[in-house]
Amino acid sequence: MTAYTATVTVRLKHGVLDPEAETTKQALERLGFELEDLRSADRFEVDLEADDADAARERADEMAERLLANPTIHDYDVEVDAR
Amino acid sequence: MGIVTVSIVRFGGSNCDRDAERALDHLGIDAEIVWHEDGLPAETSGIVLPGGFSYGDYLRAGAMAARSPILNEVREAAIEGTPVLGVCNGAQIGCESGLTEGAFTTNESARFQCEHVSLRVERADTPWTAAYDEGEVIQVPIAHGEGRYEIDDDRLETLEAEDRVLFRYCDEDGETSPEANPNGSKHDVAGVLGDRETVAVLMPHPERATLPDIGPTDGQGILRGFETA
Fold it and tell me: What is the CATH number of the domain that holds A27?
């Protein structure tokens, strides 16, 4: 078994309105920053042990499918690094 | 009555469970609050997933409660035809658990909104709307920060083709418009049916529009669904 950190990033699907990101963008503009757009995402860092990186990825993938992301509104990606 | 026993599932953070109990009691419908860890009582013949902030809205509103063991029992009961009504946080739990399609997410305003809204009854041939006429406009309050109905366009098309939209936000004349849509819900959807007509979720609070002492009572007909289902 090897120790891994699986990083799961969950973001809204393209086209799904993100009112909090819009509000944050407006606040940055009020502070004088120039920007075109802003997107927010949730990032989960999962420490786990697995036989190999593929097994770690597969487990993190299932975590995203079953809880961390809501497939109706979210896309997600998983990155796996040895710890 | 007395035959129907509605179980109101209480999670840590539920806060409309007692309102639902009082409202059902007012209508003469037997109801009891059930702690989620205790499971559904054998005599359960109806289920309310009440409003509130179960699990502190951690991760997403309803996400945690939707994955608690009692939801497996609720899903099984729903498949067998037991009427299930999800209100507000209960609606979020319903969608997160797959009882109903779509998701309720952050209001377009990005704010918590507590106000009276008008709803158009899209179908009158379900237990939850048998007390109304199709197209009737009823007044029911909302109180939520995450009530914007979101769903893929093609799935929404299917939902509409199958006539499973139960309520839409509208103005007092029953017309839908961006102004009459309080939270930016897609196609003004305020409530939907599950696979069966006996399963429904909605963001507005019928239990807050039932007791005559506190205002309009247009929500009574929705709760009476437990008698007719």
Answer: 3.30.1280.10
Q: Over the stretch B126-177, which tens digit does the pLDDT of each residue have?
A: 999 999 999 999 999 999 999 999 999 999 999 999 999 999 999 999 999 9
Domain count, chain A: 1
pLDDT in tens, B185-194: 999 999 999 9
Domain region containing A61: 2-82
Q: Chain B window 109-168: which residues touch A at a Cβ cutoff of 8 Å?
A: 109-110, 148, 150-152
> What are the distances in angstroms from CA B161 to CA B66, B96, B154, B165, B176?
27, 22, 10, 9, 18
Task: Identify the bridge partners of residue B149 per DSSP, sorted by sequence position.
Answer: B104
What are the catalytic residues of B? Answer: 88, 205, 207
Report pLDDT digits (tens) over B1-37. 446 799 999 999 999 999 999 999 999 999 999 999 9
Strands (E), B61-220: 84-87, 103-105, 113-121, 137-144, 148-150, 165-170, 189-193, 199-202
Chain A interface with B: residues with Cβ < 8 Å = 16-20, 22-23, 66-68, 70, 72-73
CB atoms within 10 A of CB A13: 14
